[in-house]
Amino acid sequence: MSLRRLGLMAGAGLLAMLLVVGAACLTTGCSTLGYYAQAASGHLDLLRRARPVAEVVAAPETPAALRDRLMLSQQMRDFAETRLLLPRNGSYRRYADLQRSAAVWNVVATPELSLALKTWCFPVMGCVGYRGYYDKSAAEALAAELNQQGMETRVYGVPAYSTLGYSSWLGGDPLLNTFIQGNEIELAQQIFHELAHQVVYAADDTTFNESFATSVERIGGQLWLQQHNRPGTQAAMLAWQQRAARQKDFRELTRRYREQLQALYDSGLPDTDKRRDKATLMAALQADYTALKTQRWGGYAGYDTWFASANNASFAVLAAYNQLVPAFERLYEQQGRDLGRFYAAVQRLADLPKDQRMAVLVAEP
């Protein structure tokens, strides 16, 4: 599992971004105008590069592998509408080659002895636990600044983000070179995840939004594989099951240590003792990961990068991505696996105050 999908959802379309720029000048004296300007120009450049999929497929210069993947993506897009009841609009009907490895780079940060993500608030669009940049060096510069303030940070590339439907009048969110060449199930889940953000979105609640979209991608990914029986499907299903098993192991391992770190930070111990015990926990985490990788995963090293730089920010953003997924999956089952009823139930939760929706989701079934 990666953090690839936690995107710049706060950048909800060019129109909203331009409104934000204006509002920022009124509320902050334009002190953050540069940030909003790069977001607006970055998104405008992305839209400018987008071309209809049919046009790219028909172009003689399009590589065969890309042509095949784009045609497959349109089958997935149709499936998202008809089977998953996701929005019928122009999103993922166009393609853009950004000529870089990520759509945006996100910065997340936490205090040294806390798992609470620093939040940034934006006029019109609310507060989120990350800050996104179209230029990696700008993201790294912010992380360095926050590190100097004593915070723990993580910078990671995001291959896609949702504009929550706000850019539909401009053609919608496009497919991107940053994720189009992933394996079949990853491509399907990427599309389903981002479209889910257009179905339900709760302001100022990153964990709710990301966990809901993650539950939709998992449900949708499994349904896609079950209903598309063609050469290679069985192999894809087995690969998906193996990947899901590793993700489950990873989530369980990191959940245990996240809970231990949270208990430590909430304790009344002096900070010096917290730092000592934190170091002990992080060393134990590395040892447990090594054992998991060698004993259960047959040496699979796909999570090495995450563990090599694991810190509070890493744990905090994982919680945002996964914490409520089991609760949403239970809700899906409670709604008889009816996606229409499921989305309606999630919307009712989104309409509640944040503390109330959290109380409902974490309650025992």
Q: Please count the helical segments.
A: 14
- Spatial sequence of strands, sheet with the most strands: 1-2-8
Instruction: Tell me the β content.
Output: 5-15%
In whole angstroms, how far apart are the ends?
27 Å
- Mean pLDDT over the full residue set: 88
Describe this structure in words.
59% of the residues lie in helices and 8% in strands. The two termini are 27 Å apart. It has one domain (13-362). It is globular, with a radius of gyration of 21 Å. It has helices at residues 13-28, 33-49, 53-58, 64-82, 136-148, 184-199, 206-227, 233-266, 271-295, 304-308, 312-322, 325-334, 339-350, 354-362; strands spanning 51-52, 94-96, 104-110, 120-122, 126-128, 131-133, 152-158, 175-176. The protein is mostly helical. A hairpin with a 3-residue loop joins strand 4 (120-122) and strand 5.
List keywords for this structure.
365 residues, disordered N terminus, single chain
List the helices and strands and how they pair.
Blueprint (H helix, E strand, L loop, with lengths): L12 H16 L4 H17 L1 E2 H6 L5 H19 L11 E3 L7 E7 L9 E3 L3 E3 L2 E3 L2 H13 L3 E7 L16 E2 L7 H16 L6 H22 L5 H34 L4 H25 L8 H5 L3 H11 L2 H10 L4 H12 L3 H9 L3
Parallel strand pairs: 2-8
Antiparallel strand pairs: 1-2, 3-6, 3-7, 4-5
Helix pairs in contact: 1-2, 4-6, 6-7, 7-11, 7-12, 8-9, 8-11, 12-13
Short account of what is shown:
This protein has 365 residues and is mostly helical.
